[in-house]
Amino acid sequence: MSFSVPERVIWISTDHMRFDCIAAHGNPLMSTPNLDRLVNNGVTFTNCYVQSPLCMPSRCSFMTGLYPQQTGVTQNGQTLPPGFKPTVASVFNEIGYNTVHIGKLHFQPHEENDLDPRARYNYGFEIFWLAEEPGCYEDAYTKWLRSEYPQYAKAFKTVRPISPTRPPVYEGCVIDAPWEASYSGWVANQAERYLGWHNPKVYKPWHTYFKQKQFMHLGFYAPHHPLNPTTEMFKPYSNVEILLNQINEREWEDKPRPLSDILQSYKDIPVEKFIEYRRYFYAMVTGVDMAIGKILKKLESENMLDDTLIVFMSDHGDMCGDHRLISKEVTFFDEIMKVPCVLYWPKGFGTKGRKIDGLIEMVDLLPTLVELCGGNVPEVMQGKSYAKELLNNKVPSAREDVIAFHHPDFAMIRTNEYKYIRYNSFNTEVLYDFSDDFSEVVNRIKDKPEVLNKMRERMLSRFLAAGRSVLEAPYLF
């Protein structure tokens, strides 16, 4: 197959979505026909791990090709500097793509920022339709909703994140409104409009004002809580039986702080609450799937699908009741760290589904996309590109291990056989052995001293490399 760059790239990111929230990934309860289509006809990395368990550091990492220690964003609430390079927009601008952002980006804190009259940073995106959280800010989504669906504006209104009246994260509700008015519906609507404007075959007379190639990032907030699906989104799950993975009582007893404290966070919550959380969570995923279906239909109607590279992934996962936990914390469980990563490009990859099972890091995604689109990967990026192997239908060489970091000094390293976690400021450690404990329940630091020392050495080596500065040195002294 001869190599040519895609005319357009659509990078779809979700928030909190687990790897197993796609039917084609082995969960028959999920109603995800459009994601199934991408998986069954594209390239799926089945062991892709994010570099942080929280939104901002993870996003700033995979959208720069750098580790959190290098971007300086190692927890929520920090800001990626406005002139920071490389970012996804800066590299795609340089290789000749128009760059568009729609939805959630989260390179800077969003709480109360809509009250600040100063302009927000766009990080190089030429079109920037920002909405960091649905229904609680004066942002692009809220303004659109009041204009297009004013009768449902109140229904989708949500309480600000730090408000004392905000409901618990495990509480869900169904909104009697059309899916089209939801946040996911808005993202699809804006993407569809943009794709219609920028089809050179249709709008050739004035398309010369734009670059011929298009890059679009679609930032979905779902399935992040608040869990407020519409009736249509919730319908596939309203009457199905939902089971949790095994919940191990008193799992915290062999764990050090702060992990033991986290594992006790919801110990008094009835199991039924976790089941209902997962039911509403699945419905939010289906809302994203419906948006992808709308975008695919638009691409097909405009004869643009074959030459479009579609990327689907998430910034991290969600516990969804496993280990008697919900949402995400610095536990570094696979439910949080392992995420979907799917690439679909008929003209470049063909339409035969491929699964790549080796370990990769989400920091590898941007370098891979840059090379697939004909660019040179900036030297400062530490992610690995798999473009050549993908184009030549070869299996990329897997990483021996994957790492993650969180402020102030919490770290994880995972191989196929073991996972080692260090909470450095607590001087505590956790070791899991996947040979007989794939659910990550038993702490093995006491009975595997040789493995523990080897994993410590691995972590030291990886984190020394991951801490290299990306700042330029224009002077000798």
Can you describe what's shown?
The strands form 3 sheets. This protein has an 8-stranded mixed sheet, with helices on both faces. The chain has a 4-stranded antiparallel sheet with strand order 12-13-14-15, with helices on one face. The protein is α/β, with parallel strands linked by helices. It contains 15 helices and 15 strands. Helix 6 (183-197) runs parallel beside helix 10. The protein starts with 7 loop residues before the first strand and ends in an 11-residue tail after the last helix. It has helices at residues 33-41, 55-62, 68-71, 88-94, 140-148, 183-197, 204-207, 231-234, 259-263, 271-301, 334-337, 346-349, 365-372, 387-391, 449-466, and strands at 8-15, 43-45, 48-49, 97-103, 127-130, 213-223, 308-314, 338-339, 341-344, 354-356, 360-361, 402-406, 410-414, 418-423, 428-433.
Features:
16% strand, 8-stranded mixed β-sheet, 28% helix, 477 residues, 15 helices, alpha/beta, 4-stranded antiparallel β-sheet
Task: Describe the structure concisely for a colleague.
By secondary structure, the chain is α/β, with parallel strands linked by helices.
